[in-house]
Every structure is written in C-alpha cells, then in structure tokens.
TrEMBL record:
InterPro entries: 2TM_dom (IPR025698)
Domain 2TM positions: 17-74
Stated name of the protein: 2TM domain-containing protein
Source species of the chain: Acidovorax cavernicola
Assigned keywords, A-Z: Membrane, Transmembrane, Transmembrane helix
Lineage, broadest ranks: Bacteria, Pseudomonadati, Pseudomonadota, Betaproteobacteria, Burkholderiales
Transmembrane segments: 26-47, 53-76
C-alpha cells in the first residue's frame, strides 16, 4: 500500500528510509534464525537429560522476538501502520486549525 506521506519525500530520503527499513527487517530475520537454532539446541539438550527447562528461555526469548517483530513490522517509521497514524494525526491537526 502506498502511503500519502511517501509522495512528499525526496528520492534520497526514500532511499535512506528504504535501506533503514530493509536493515531492520534483516535484523529481525537474523534474530529469528538465531532464536530457532539456539532453542533447538537447548530443547535437544534438555530432552537428552529428561528435563523440560528449555521452555523457559524459549518463552522469554520468544517474547523478545515478538516485541522486536512488532516494532519492525508495525511500528517503525515508514511502516504502513506508522504512516497511517501520522496521516491521521495530520488530518486531525488540520481540522483543528481550521476551527
């Protein structure tokens, strides 16, 4: 979806924002990959000893990964949700000024 705010940006600004967003998403993918690999190892280690303690780091780190994903995919500047919020606030502020 194209944002109304993207038409107000210069090509250099769009390139900078695109690179920043791509870097943030790549960071999340790396975080998720490391999460899966490490937790597979922890689950394997715990299972080999007949314990289930690996669920605790899995849940704790999973929460961190979830929050990281929410920031990257929904709340980051230039994201669709963020741009819609900014556009809404601009419309609201414009309506208040006209009163």
């Amino acid at each position: 979806m194209t944002s109304s705010t993207s038409s107000n940006r210069s090509p250099a600004d769009l390139e900078k924002l695109a690179r920043r967003r791509a870097g943030a998403k790549m960071g999340w993918y790396i975080h998720a990959f490391v999460y899966v690999i490490v937790n597979l190892g922890l689950v394997g280690l715990a299972a080999s000893r007949g314990h289930n303690w690996a669920v605790y780091p899995l849940m704790g780190w999973g929460l961190g990964l979830l929050i990281h994903g929410a920031v990257v995919w929904f709340l980051a500047p230039g994201g669709g949700f963020y741009d819609r919020l900014v556009a809404h606030e601009r419309r609201t502020l414009g309506a208040e000024e006209r009163r």
